Amino acid sequence: MMLRKTLSLTALLCLICGSVLANAPSLPREARVPGGVAFVEIPGDKAPARVMFGDYQVAVIRQDNRWVAVVGIPLATKPGPQTLVVYSGTDRKEATFNVTDKQYRTQKLTIKNQRQVDPNPDDLKRIQQEQQRSDAALSKFTPGADVPGLSLLSPVPGVRSDSYGSRRIFNGQPRNPHSGMDIAAATGTPIVAPAAGKVVEAGDFFFNGNTLYIDHGYGLVTMYCHLSSIAVKVGDEVKAGQLIGKVGATGRVTGAHLHWGVALNRAMVDPGLFLEPQTP
Ligand SMILES: [Zn+2]
């Protein structure tokens, strides 16, 4: 009798495990650190109207009959408790989660063109305008018919650097930390869209060279920098795997590579969390 009970309990537990595994998204991987992604359960039966983290709306997915906010954590976040604000009708609630510290490396780089480290006043004007365009593209939150799919294909084959988050010293001067992933590839290597989306910005940028932004919906926006050529234009709808441009060495670079940025609720998060791990 006892044995039968144990067996049926085991069977039941396995069934539960199976359903959990079947429904849990494998990507992005959760990492509650600056530059990472947090999955935060939102209590309640009905879909929340809106979940905000700071000034930005957050994607909410349905998982195991629960509503789960998928939150991009900005690199500059101070470790400690964080608050999401959840709006449903006239109701306002809070949901909290904790961010732990992560130490990123320091990288020293030498740039031949000193003007790309110390831009002149005209350059600074241009850079400011480009930052506004970039910010507008990266801040988009476009709802769609379906719940968001948040896993991505690698936009180019090649060795992925793990320099996301590293503090950067250009020609001896500290600059912003590295907010994306560099993938080593020769000039001319095709770049594909990592998921379906819409091209929302493209141009020749001072630091980033030929640059392209794709809005995938629900606050997931990807950017591609230093391209030798761009194969799509603003307004184009792209499919996952479609050619969008080619790798190059335009802008502030030390050699040809793709700089790939992934924004989730405007936070530039670690793109590696959205990819299947690379097999060595
Ligand atoms: Zn880069």
UniProtKB/TrEMBL annotation:
Residues forming coiled coils: none
Signal peptide: 1-22
Any one GO molecular-function label of the UniProt entry: metalloendopeptidase activity
Keyword Translocase: no
Sequence ranges assigned to domain Peptidase family M23 N-terminal in this UniProt record: 33-102
Keyword Plastid in record: no
Residue ranges of every copy of the M23ase beta-sheet core domain listed in the record: 177-271
Keywords: Hydrolase, Signal
Alphabetical list of InterPro entries matching this protein: Cell_wall_metabolism_enzyme, Dup_hybrid_motif, M23ase_b-sheet_dom, Peptidase_M23_N
Domain of life of the native organism: Bacteria
PANTHER family attached to this UniProt entry: M23 FAMILY METALLOPEPTIDASE (PTHR21666:SF285), PEPTIDASE-RELATED (PTHR21666)
Record protein name field: Murein DD-endopeptidase MepM/ murein hydrolase activator NlpD
